[in-house]
Design brief:
The chain is mostly helical and 309 residues long. It has one domain. Helices cover 74% and strands 0% of the residues.
Length: 309
């Protein structure tokens, strides 16, 4: 961004991004990097674009909702190969994640049609003098800081998941799905009560929703700005639902060979998951509590920001 790449994209790709997502062309960089690089790169780039005044407030809020996604390396390497020993599953899951993210982007564009119609489309490229060495050093410093934050959030929420596992009759895999995706995908894989197609659909739901751990990272990135987080939370909910739906439809139309999967998981059963009503109740309650907690965490940042104004 500091090298003027965002301005160049804004000028070149606005004719494509504006009709599809109602966002100027600079958002294409956040979209692509968010799809291929994992959390929380999409949120960080979106904030950089906003700080460079290449995105309006509402553009940034909408872009944030569908550019913060699980990396293909994690989905294919950890989930598909590490758990299921089936790389082809990973490519399908990645495709469903991309499709669901783009679906959310298209829906948000339809909801903001009047706003999009009033947006300017001219973005003059302004030449800037930059110090490449200084920028490189800042990138390294920021990368180390981000990695520390990610590891801290993962450890924190993994401990919470472990504590939840000590509660009798608590659906640990379901609770983990709202907290941290790495632990959740592993628990879903080891759940013998779910048939394969529901395991994969539940995994897509978790990947699309991303978990409270990722949302806390986003709050830490966005918290000192005036960008609304409501579109982000709504977008992640919708993305999880769409991803699960796309995965279920795909594997219904193109089922996997059960014998191949059984070689990796010999004890897999096809039982119906128990207590569906209780699981739904747990899911809705925990989902709402998760969002309420994140909104409360973001309020102090908003208050500090308004005092400075």
């Amino acid at each position: 961004m500091r090298l003027g790449f965002g301005q160049l994209l804004a000028k070149r790709l606005t004719p494509i991004m504006m009709p599809l997502f109602g966002i100027n062309g600079s958002g294409a960089f956040a979209l692509v990097m968010g799809l291929v690089s994992g959390f929380p790169i999409g949120a960080m780039i979106t904030m950089d674009l906003y700080k460079e005044k290449l995105l309006s407030n509402r553009e940034a809020a909408r872009l944030l909702a569908f550019t913060n996604n699980a990396s293909p390396l994690f989905v294919i390497g950890t989930v598909a190969i590490g758990f299921y020993a089936m790389p082809q599953i990973g490519f399908v899951l990645v495709g469903c994640q991309v499709a669901s993210a783009l679906t959310v982007g298209l829906l948000l564009r339809l909801m903001a049609r009047q706003e999009v119609a009033r947006m300017p489309v001219n973005f003059p490229i302004v030449a800037k003098r930059v110090h490449v060495g200084r920028i490189f050093g800042e990138c390294i410093e920021n990368s180390v800081s981000v990695m520390g934050n990610i590891c801290g959030f993962i450890v924190f929420f993994s401990v919470i998941i472990g504590l939840l596992g000590q509660i009798p009759h608590c659906p640990q895999a379901l609770m983990a799905g709202f907290l941290e995706i790495t632990a959740a995908t592993g628990l879903i894989f080891h759940s013998d009560a779910l048939p394969l197609i529901l395991k994969l659909s539940a995994t897509s739901l978790v990947l699309g929703w991303s978990g409270l751990s990722v949302h806390a990272q986003v709050v830490s990135v966005v918290g000192d700005s005036d960008i609304s987080l409501i579109p982000y939370f709504a977008g992640k909910m919708l993305q999880g639902v769409f991803a699960a739906l796309y995965t279920y439809v795909y594997f219904t139309l193109c089922p996997l060979q059960q014998s191949v999967f059984s070689q990796s998981v010999p004890h897999m059963t096809q039982a119906t998951p128990p207590s569906i009503g209780m699981m739904v109740l747990f899911a809705v309650t925990f989902w709402l509590l998760s969002i309420a907690l994140l909104m409360l965490l973001s309020m102090p940042f908003r208050g500090i920001m308004h005092k400075h104004h």
